[in-house]
Amino acid sequence: MYYRLDPSFALRSWNRVPYALLRKDAIDADVVDEGTFRILCSCDGKTDIPTGRTVQRLLAAGIIRRCEYGGGDPTQWQQLRWYDNRYFPAVCWSITERCNFDCRHCFVGAGSADDAPCFTYAEAMAFLEACEQCGIHAFVLTGGEPLMHPDFLNILQEIYRRNMHVYMVNTNGSFITPDLLGHMKDIGCIPHLKISFDGIGRHDWLRRSSGAEQQVLRAIELSTAEGFPVTVQMNVFPGNLDCLEETLVCLENAGVQETRLIRTADAPKWNKNSDGSVLSFTEYFDAMLGLLDSFVRQQHRMGLDIWRFVRLDPSRKQYRISAIKHAECYSGKLPVCEGNRHMLSVTANGDMVPCHSFSGLYRTQGISLGNVKTQPLGALLTKSPYLDAVCETLDGLARQNHQCGRCRYFRYCCGGCRAMAALYGNTYYASDPMMCCFFQNRYDRKIRSLLPLWQDTLYTDIP
Questions:
Q1: What stretch of H or E contains 394?
Q2: 3-class DSSP state for residue 161?
Q3: Fewer Cβ within 10 Å of end Cβ, the chain: N or C?
Q4: Residue 165 parent element (H or E)
Q5: How many CA atoms lie within 13 A of 80 on its CB side?
């Protein structure tokens, strides 16, 4: 029998990940065994392949299709590509730090200055070429305000011309219009839109822009009406605790798929402009417990992701405690942050950072792990300080931080967040005090006590 790859799949091979199957519009590639990979490479419409168990499994999964002899030539995109660099399938890319707001809390420090860092069109095209040569195929576009980039649509068009895709756009929503969404659809770009909104009656204060609230609510309604999946990210601070429940109802009625609540971190700009409106870790966790109780009782349909606490899927009555990372599948060889290990973060001046939460901090401290505007991306993803940082293992963290290494909760929190550790401990290997607070006060038990009829998708009995 003769077979061909389904058009939505391609064959890829990276340094240390030699056998991978890539699905179009996904982020991560699927690792397969050598035998399966050899069969996939033979699905060219010209090689007679016995119909064994592996072939039957691939057929059932829709990965391959039967065809006549000569009818299965893979497209150029589908053909096997080998990359010498380490595996990174995606990038969170700040295309500009210009922004029409001057938000009180921005950890990037973005603003309206004409000299704010920005990728020129030529720099953006060169970076996309480098990404394609390294096997990066998925993008999260951020800023600043990415929609302010004068070549935003041209960048989108080039991404899709190269058979890559945009998974998400982070935006304040103020530039979302019917025309913009129509142009994005014409390109074939219908990504998740993560839109910032910080509470009814509170948004304008945090964003320091009169009328921003009504503007973003219109953008949310327009985006959902046009078929774009919308996630809302909402800062949590003392000044908006009393409007969270009302805001969640409003967002659900507007068609938002999920709302992500995040404690406003003690970044320098927030400490300067917050008027002392900062939640301690305990205050944040306690407030989120109260909100969780109310949210479950009201039987919402919208998903809720409470940062570093719990993520709820009401449609399935499932939840996952976000603070618990690996639990039963813990291994010291795992990276200190799996998200950073799979997704590059590139700032608007070209600096590579473990994640964008490091951007302002590293700039202030004069730390550079590599720069995509001045150094070849392939070399940076083969050997560089950046690669050393994001490939650091849990064993390495435990060796550097004996307090974490000896902690009974380390195998569950896996050291917490490296950005939070650096913010409070001034080093990449410091302890994350937010996770220390979570586990020492056993908030995992408190969360479970509020969800007795829900399924914990990563249940682990922590002694």
A1: helix 394-400
A2: helix
A3: C
A4: strand 165-171
A5: 14
The span from the CA of 148 to the CA of 150, in Å, is 6
pLDDT tens digit string along 266-301? 776 777 777 767 899 999 999 999 999 999 999 899
Dist. CA 149–CA 143, nearest whole Å: 9
How many CB atoms sit inside 10 A of residue 282's CB? 12
Euclidean distance between CA atoms 245 and 346, whole angstroms: 35
Q: Where are the alpha helices (DSSP H) in 117-161?
A: 121-133, 152-161
Q: How is residue 44 written in tokens?
A: 């060219």
> Residue with structure tokens 């219109």?
218
Count Cα neighbours of 24 within 13 Å in the Cβ-side half-sphere.
17
Burial of 299 (0-12, 13-18, 19+ CB in 10 A): exposed
The upper half-sphere exposure of residue 259, i.e. CA atoms within 13 Å in the direction of its Cβ, equals 27
What are φ and ψ of residue 385, in 5° steps?
-60, -35
Q: Which two tokens stand for residue 462?
A: 């922590």
Per-residue burial over 32-49, b if 16 or more Cβ lie within 10 Å, else e, is: beeebbebbebbbbeeee
Helices (H), 226-358: 244-253, 268-273, 281-297, 338-342
User: Which residue shows structure tokens 């902690």?
Assistant: 407
Q: Do residues 231 and 259 make contact, with C-beta atoms less than 8 angstroms apart?
A: yes
Q: Which residue has the tokens 């927030």?
A: 270
Model-level pTM greater than 0.90? Answer: yes
Whether the per-residue pLDDT at 111 is higher than 60: the answer is no
Percent of the chain with pLDDT over 90: 86
Rounded to the nearest integer, the mean pLDDT of the chain is 94
CA pair distance 274, 239, nearest whole angstrom: 10
Three-state DSSP state, 47: coil
Residue 10, strand partner residues: 22
Distance between CA atoms of residues 404 and 397, nearest Å: 8
Give 127-145 pLDDT, tens digit per residue.
Answer: 999 999 999 999 999 999 9
Backbone φ and ψ for 165, nearest 5 degrees, come out as: -150, 160
What is the rounded CA–CA span in Å between residue 17 and residue 4? Answer: 23
Closest CA to 310 of 330, 295, 332, 298: 295
